[in-house]
Amino acid sequence: MEITLSSLLAGIVIMAAPLVLAALGETLTEKAGVVNLSLDGTILLAAMTGFLVASKFQSLTLGFLVASKFQSLTLGFLAAALTGSGVAALLATIGVWLGQSQVAVGFALTFLCRDLAYFLGNPYARQKGPQLATLPIPGLSEIPFLGKVLFTHSAIVYVSFLAIPCCYYFFYHSRLGLIVRSVGENPEGCWARGINPISVQMLATIAGGALIGLAGAAFSLAVKPGWGHPQGCEGIGWIALALVIFGSWNPIRVVMGAYFFGLLQVLGIYFQDSFTSIPPQIFQVAPFPLMIFTLVLIHLSRNTKNRTIARWMRLFSGKPPKWIGRTYKQS
Amino acid sequence: MIELINIHKTFGKVQALQGVNLKAKAGTIHGVIGENGAGKSTLMKVLTGFITKTGGTILHNSVEIVCNSPADATRMGIGMLYQEPLDFPQLSVIDNFMAGADDFSPAQQRTTLAKLCDTFGFSLLPESRLEELTVGERQQLELMRLIRNGTKILILDEPTAGISEKQQELLFTALQTLKDDGATILLVSHKLEEVTSLCDTVTVLRQGKVVGEQHRPFQRDDLLKAMFDTLPEHNSPPEKKNNGSPVLEFNAVCSTVGRSGLKEISIDIHAGEVVGMAGVDGSGQSVFLKTSIGLLQPESGNISRLGQPPNISFGKKSRKTVFLPADRLSEGLFPGLNVREHHILATGNSVFLTSQKGLKKSQQAIDAYSIRGNPDTMIEDLSGGNQQRLLLSLIPDEVQLILMENPTRGLDVQSAAWTWKHLHKRLADNGAIVFASPDLEEIMEQATRVLVFYNGEILLDKPTDKTTYQEISRAITGQISKSPSHS
Amino acid sequence: MNVKRFTNFSITQATTNGFLIGALALGTVSLLLVLLGISPAAIGYALINGSLSSWLKFSHVLTIWTPLLLCGCGLLFTFRAGLWNIGIEGQVVLGAIGATFLLRQEYSTLPPWALISLAMFCSFVGGALWGAFAGVLKNRGGVNEIFGGLGLNFVAQGFILWLILGPWKRAGIASMSGTDLFTRELWMFTPHGWRVAPAALIIGFVVFLLTGLLLSATRFGLQIKAVGKNPLAAPLFGIRPDMTGLCAMAIGGGFAGLAGGLQVICVYHRLIPSISSGYGYLALLVVMLANYKILPVPFICLFFACLAAGSIQLPIVLQIDSSLSGVIQGACVLSALLVHGLRKRKKGAA
Questions:
Q1: Closest approach of C236 to chain B, Cα-based (Å)
Q2: Which of A110, A115, A136, B189 could crosslink C323 through cysteines, CB 3.0-4.6 Å?
Q3: Cβ contacts from A onto C, under 8 A
């Protein structure tokens, strides 16, 4: 197989699509001051429900009505988003409303969801199911080079493109986005301004969960179609979690991190032939040392007395939402 | 017009407000003054719905209103500038201005902000991050935000703490403008100077009750008397022991921690002294104490404690300095550990612990210090007074310097007297006590020397038998200029 | 008298909570099974049959129980110190690497028992260093132990893969199936008809007793607890919160490392990519379910180990995925969080 630059870039765009969705979902959650650690399990469970619903509905005929492939796939994605929201709602109830440790709840949910996905999905493992077809955008896909890189993909990749400006717009140019950011900074200040921080946190967590759920279906219905034990998307949730920190809670930087990771993965496949001494799994763990490095940088930029160094470091690192992971208790 | 009738508020067992009545007319500035803990902030937070009242009625233009949340209050046109600014330091000025507003239109809000800035002579760049602004500028922004919200009843809680003189002037001009527009302004303050120059009416609170009300022109002495209770004419400070060797020396120490930090503090404290520190909360007393014990590092200047730099002594070494923080449960004790375990941690150095370990010692301490509890009582189940007794019982025998914040906070009269009796007994000939207290009487009765902190500086430094309540009260409220330090 | 009543009360409360948690978790899972048309009784029978019906099966349970208990003991230290040591998984891996490192050395002059003891020591050191690394990152680099630990887990995973596929690869060809098997002399002694090495069990017991002793009967344990309860007050009692936390991380990591060492020396007799078997993460669930208390830990470990061992049979016997055991474990922990949360809220309201 000949590897051209355009096919390489197109591969990155596909690889990164679910990651973009999941990382943006987690960014939304964390901007509101909540840590959703259940990402990895949620993605798997959503991948399973998405696949299950789409393939069940496909074979379902109601009298004369035969569900079209498009409808069944849409339902699959919807089911996955609902699953993500459901898990997030559970996290929000125990971790925000009841005030238990968000990390503990998220951690327990990760494993519960993962095993639940394998258990419930077992009868459907390695079965043929519907798959999102590539949908070249008329006109745009004919642009040389760029057309192939950006506009000959499945719908979920386009959704991941759309999600980026939408999220950016939401955070920085909408009233609700401002409220979400405010809650993550100082819930007490929000309370003083007539906003109920707990409701905002719960809603943001649930909305973020929907995006995370979509990422799951993006795997099982498009990027790595099908269901099995393992499915192939294991570990992506943790990477999305690392990317949010690596991108310093800035949606654009988070997305850039996702594409950077997509590049690493594609390069990993590419290098496998050229450099057999580097196992591809090494590329899988690359985001994590980078994440730790970012966190150290944030710390140093905050504590250094040298202003020039501090300014330069600030270019590479932002601050986490001030209230992240803490429980807000109303007086 | 806003009327507060018979307002009550209790926190657990503490009665913060006990039937407060207050009437503020439109087009006036109404001052609310009182000592620390008199209930001023609590009363204002009740009015804004930030905390819910236990009892009482609020009337707005003779109609009863219910404020269960700040959202309700905002709808009524009530807005408050909190003492600790409740804003979002990492967001931009314009974001802070817009957060919580019903209408989100950045372009329009920018114009509004610019217009308001113009009206009041403030200069704020909409794009700068709030954390780069001074406290005064953050306050200006909050004020404009409240005005934008259509606030007709404006509450300010200690607005001049930590802001520059120029900013204070701007603020006062703005308040005059608002008053002339017919707003009701409630001004909470410790500073008599600003209250008397700005307000039309002043209400004095003490221990959750109204103890005085005056209209212009004000009788300052009467206000002072009401604030600080009847001032006794004579006092009987403890006998001053001979000036011993220096125990604590500060040499041009600066710090930027807290609201006011420390500004070039130079002071010597000698063995045998009991030093009482007075001043409004956050004027530098707490930073002084925490810097002395080594919990905070000064930005510049030298400190010598018992002849050594002030570092916390870790490990088994005998502790010559102890610090008793104001917030005992969250800064000085371990909630979830019992009395016996505290004694084990504070004293002795045996490696292995049996269930009997420290039992005798803590039982002795419980008896000697009459702590109501037993060795297995969890620390958070003890009352405030008993927690303080426990802390006292943990002071090692070899101690030379005792640093304390509000040593008798939350203690009844008898416990307080008992505490001081013990403290004086514990004071070794080569030792000293330094304490901060909001209670002037306590300082006058227990200390040999008084320091008054104001905005990070020591305004007054005199032996307690050479000063008066009047002089100290005036120093606390910033009405005297800095005196040369006594030697 | 007063004391006694208080203790009795808390014991009753704990029993009620335990009962509630069990009922909620098992009830939910049973309901799910019924909805799927699977008989919960059949599942229960299969799980018990697969784990407790013979000594061989039970000794297999014990091979899971031992590393789980070691990890749980390590976590008790870090939770006591108020730290969320999610990096325990990586500490297990580094322990396994430490043990393999020693066993690969060609000191054939030493008797096997000495080599095995040294390897166990190395596994402790490996895990302890990895734990301390996360601690240093927290103290010096301002990296929260959760994110730091999580990152280090994956770094450890990358490291072990690199070793297996690189420097320590099998003679001839690198393979994901692991390194070469050690010679028989370097396997820990396991009697005929046993799955678990008696020495491993002894190590588990000793570490558990040591944990109980250190945490509840020494000054050091009390200091760890104090730092966990209130790091702000610690300096006033002459305790360094950062160093105490670091010690807890190192000890916790060391015990997790021992678990990794046992996996290498007793179970797999070589280094494999999934050497930790997820026991670190599972132990986190165990300690959370134990509500961070010492005494329930070995029993919950046994329960979880039985589930894990019993479920291996499920795909063959009932054509059900073995991950059902994970569902039961997760449901238990989530129920515990829910029940404790509701209790807290009720207490706060009263």
A1: 7
A2: A115
A3: 141
Tens digits of residue pLDDT in C24-61 = 999 999 999 999 988 999 999 999 998 999 999 999 99
- Please give the residue of chain C at the shortest CA–CA distance from A110: C330
Is pLDDT above 60 for B190?
Answer: yes
Residues 6+ apart with CB under 8 A from B475: B278, B452, B454, B459, B460
- B155 closest CA partner among B40, B8, B16: B40
Strand partners, B352: C218
Instruction: Report the complex ipTM.
Output: 0.90
Looking at the structure of chain A, the number of domains it has is 1
Chain A's closest residue to B95, CA to CA, is A178
Residue B393: inside a domain: no
- B308 and B280 part of one domain: yes
Which residues, including other chains, have CB under 8 Å from residue B74's CB and lie 6 or more apart?
A193, A194, B149, B151
Q: C216 and C51 in contact (C-beta within 8 Å)? A: no
Q: Does A116 touch chain C (CB under 8 A)?
A: yes
Residues B137 and B285 grouped into a single domain: no
User: Do residues B251 and B180 both lie within one domain?
Assistant: no
Class of CATH domain C53-310: mainly alpha
pLDDT tens, per residue, chain C with 350 residues: 344 444 445 678 888 888 999 999 999 999 999 999 889 999 999 999 989 999 999 999 999 999 999 999 999 999 999 999 999 999 999 999 999 999 888 766 788 888 899 999 999 999 999 999 999 999 888 888 888 999 999 999 989 988 888 888 887 777 778 888 888 887 888 888 888 888 999 999 999 999 999 999 999 999 999 999 999 899 888 889 999 999 999 999 999 999 999 999 999 989 999 999 999 999 999 999 999 999 999 999 999 999 999 998 888 888 888 899 999 999 999 999 999 999 888 876 55
Q: Rounded to two decimals, what is the model's pTM?
A: 0.87
Secondary structure letter of residue C185 according to DSSP: G
The Cα of B157 is separated from the nearest Cα of chain C by a number of Å equal to 29
d(CA B112, CA B91): 19
Q: Is A130 in contact with A76 (CB distance < 8 Å)?
A: yes
Are A163 and A20 spatial neighbours (Cβ–Cβ below 8 Å)?
yes
Distance (Å) of CA C333 to CA A90, A108, C21, C287, C297: 13, 6, 8, 9, 13
3-class SS of residue C321: coil
Q: Both B202 and B127 in a single domain?
A: yes
Residues B215 and B303 in one domain: no
Q: B254 and B220 in one domain?
A: no
Q: Do B334 and C229 make contact, defined as CB atoms within 8 angstroms?
A: yes
Q: What is the CATH number of the domain that holds B28?
A: 3.40.50.300
Are B298 and B251 in a shared domain? yes
Domain carrying residue A134: 5-255
Count of structural domains within chain B? 2
